Amino acid sequence: MDPVVEVTDLVVDRGRRRVLHDISCTVGSGSVTGLLGPSGSGKSTLMRAVVGVQTVRSGQVRVFGQPAGAPQLRRTVGYLTQAPSVYADLTVRENARYFAALYGLPAADADRAVADVGLAAAAGQLVADLSGGQRSRASLACALVGRPELVVLDEPTVGQDPVLRAELWARFHALAAAGTTLLVSSHVMDEAGRCDRLLLIRDGRLVADDTPAAVRAAAGTDDLDEAFLRLIRDRQPTGPSRGADR
Questions:
Q1: pLDDT tens digits, residue range 88-102?
Q2: For residue 7, which of 70, 107, 163, 177 sits 20 to 30 Å off, Cα-Cα?
Q3: 198-218 pLDDT, tens per residue?
Q4: Across-strand partners of 126?
């Protein structure tokens, strides 16, 4: 599987605090890679580095062979932040059509993206009137409407009910089957089993980079929650940790 994202010896500092410690990993083409770890482990910082909006101290991040954030990648990478990135005074449909227009795409593509995230019935509602989970899905529709080759999703299922979570994961795998590469973060370990590959992170350090099956085997348990805890115990870094940012 060809790498879409290549992270090499990445170090990120915030002031005097080290947030990411020499992270090296890859994200394979046409896969759903899960970036999992507790809140505050450095997941969002790593994702910002992949998108190219994070200042780094050292190391390298390349996306499709280009430096992260290169102008050539702007139409290639879709990014969903934790905070909704849509206009509150527009409807869901108007938001999606606006972003579609930026890519020169027809309104039908925007409407399809809205339907794909389960918001067809709320398409005419103002974003300001939506629940938090609905706003997140409206942002997801806007991130997907441009048909990016790499989609970076920062905790996209937070606030969604179990049925919608299952539907979103089915959509993610459908995108991957069609050739899109997805990097999806979560702090909920029961989502780890839905991924093709896992990047497990804690305190800004990579604990594991492997398939769910291999992580289970390495930890000697079928429970991914317990596997994560065992890997943390087995791979505690020497010396004190100063913690990590989100």
A1: 999 999 999 999 999
A2: 177
A3: 999 999 999 999 999 999 999
A4: 91
> Number of helices (H) and strands (E), helices first, in the chain?
7, 10
Whole-Å CA distances, 217 to 157, 198, 231: 27, 13, 11
Q: Residue 32, Cα to own-chain centre: how many angstroms?
A: 9
Domains of the chain by residue range: 3-76+148-234
In the CATH scheme, what is the homologous superfamily, with its name and number, of domain 3-76+148-234? P-loop containing nucleotide triphosphate hydrolases (3.40.50.300)
Kindly list the distances between the CA atom of residue 47 and the CA atoms of 41, 44, 73, 81, 245, in Å, as whole numbers in the listed order. Answer: 12, 5, 15, 9, 12
pTM: 0.89
At residue 41, the pLDDT reads 92
For residue 44 the two structure tokens come to 């969002």
